[in-house]
Design brief:
There is one protein chain. The chain has one domain (9-101). Helices cover 43% and strands 0% of the residues. It has helices at residues 3-6, 9-28, 47-52, 69-74, 90-101.
């Protein structure tokens, strides 16, 4: 059995976050949503901040992409459209949707 299959589901999801999700957050979100700027009163540097949310409420609902404001904003559905300009590529939105669907497990790559 390959080593990645032997890992626990939580370990696989943390690795997914570190390898696939964190790079998107770093590249697309942290320029405005960090500990110094906190646009919308939210930092993207830790899971708790996304669960608590900002001025509009929780950004993510683990296991429920349809109720996750972050995903709606990234798809430019409704009033809140992030990032400013064109929406993220469908591939990146798909990765973030998968992450939320799998419980939005946080890895080691991003921390305050």
């Amino acid at each position: 059995m390959p080593a990645w299959q032997a890992a626990s589901p939580k370990a696989r999801d943390a690795k997914f976050f570190d390898q696939r999700v964190a790079p998107i957050l770093e590249r697309r979100c942290l320029g405005c949503h960090n500990e110094e700027l906190k646009n919308g009163n939210i930092s993207f540097l830790d899971r708790e901040s996304l669960l608590h949310g900002g001025t509009r409420g929780p950004a993510i609902v683990p296991g429920n992409p349809a109720k996750s404001l972050l995903l709606a904003a990234l798809r430019h559905e409704g009033e809140l459209q992030m990032p400013p300009g064109p929406p993220l590529p469908a591939k990146e939105i798909s990765i973030l949707t998968t992450w939320v669907k799998r419980g939005a497990i946080w890895g080691e790559r991003l921390h305050k």
